[in-house]
Amino acid sequence: MFADNDEATDNTDPISADAPGARRRERQRQAVRRELLQVARELMLEVGPDNVTLREVARRADFSPAAIYTYFANRDAIILALMEDSFRRLDEYVRRVPRNSSPDRRVIEFCLAYMDFGRENPADLRSILAANSLDLPEGVDPSLGLEAARLIGETFREGMQQGVFRAHEGLSASEMAYQLWALVHGMTVLEGIDLTMVSGEISATPRRIIEAFVEGLKAK
Questions:
Q1: What is the dihedral of CA 158, 162, 164, 167, to 10 degrees?
Q2: Is domain 15-72 in CATH 1.10.10.60, yes or no?
Q3: Where, residue-wise, is CATH 1.10.357.10 in the chain?
Q4: Between 177 and 170, where is the model more confident?
């Protein structure tokens, strides 16, 4: 009636049986990819994005030059991967800003979050700047990394609706946000440059500078 154990048919699905192994291999692959990206990030900070090569990344990671192409097709692919990773990290910074404060305070905190990101992640900032010289391939979300700018624009529009901000010389909320974004981005980039000769003449903190700028945009 019942087959002996050694005669029983094994109906185990080989694909299901290998699922744990497949997941383990995928985790290992992702770990290697993260390691390669970290090496590339450090290399880019050292030599600049134009001088990053897959061969040098492989050498520094003690990785086979041929095998690295199974992770990244070419130099632009690894720069693009760095860019995407950096943009996601930037988005994490701006999402930490509480949404329950007034529009004028919130927009200041968005700006300071961006400056914190650039200060604490200089290699990520450089990969974002390098992204401007790359053509985004198909399948890449063109809005990636625009979360901070989008939130600043939305907050300005909200502030104008509430009467917190007023239009200056016919500028729209988006144009006012662009002014502020240019100021903050410029300060973020300049913080990474040695300005010893002039830094002694600047006593105001970034917060005070941003607050003064935002104050000038408020309705009186």
A1: 70
A2: yes
A3: 86-220
A4: 177
